[in-house]
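hi! just following up on the protien thing from before. the input was this:
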Amino acid sequence: MERSGKQFRKRNAILSCLQHSRSHPSAETLYEALRQEYPDISLATVYRNLALFRDQGIIQSLGTIGGVERFDGDTYPHAHFVCSGCGAVVDLPEAGVPDCSGIAREMGCRVERVQMILTGLCTDCLSRKEE
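and the predicted 3d structure came back as:
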């Protein structure tokens, strides 16, 4: 029984770490953040739990950014800005997401999720480019 308790502590720690992060981390970033408190945690455990959370709708995957899958603990519909220079991901709650119910009706399908990602250069990358 104790082993399953440890597993739930790790699972809860992974979810909490993601939900409190604003950087939209990768599995590797979460793993590094949790290793000090949970030295026996494995990268496979982090990946397995992220897949479980994603499948349960508790978190969302933003897809692959710079060759690495990134995650968001905020499942409320909102847009993101991804910097093509440094890879930063920023929430854009004020941008909203488009209503696709008309498209769904026209196509005869059911839209389950809309994801809007704007890409470009962030302020820092623009500043470095101008120097």
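The mean pLDDT is 91.
The CA atoms of residues 11 and 49 lie 6 Å apart.
cheers
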